[in-house]
Amino acid sequence: WVSQATFDPPGISLAIAKDRAVENLLYPGSKFVLNIIGEGNQQDYVKHFRKSFAPGEDRFNNFPTASADNGGIILTDATAYLECSASKRMECGDHWVIYATVDNGKLLQPDTVTAIHRRKAGNHY
Fold this sequence. Notes:
125 residues, Pnp Oxidase, Chain A
């Protein structure tokens, strides 16, 4: 889950399940890109990124990408992206909650509505 956390500095919070492969990349000081996907374009991404990946497997090889200034990966057909720096990490049950500052970003498709994943229940993915 992603949520706005602060205005000054601009910051977000992420809740990442402990068993997700990406959680080991999100320690204080690490840099990453949060890609924001447009409505109607999300199903391929949801299906792809929901699956498990082998260690070292390129998770982005099926999608058009570019490199961000912070070294992260930008999905070039995303609505927008945020270049972030992980600042704090807190253990919360079966998830990690990460606070990250937003260092840079860009709106790529200004006329696109942001996709929202609506769940029928909040107790499982």
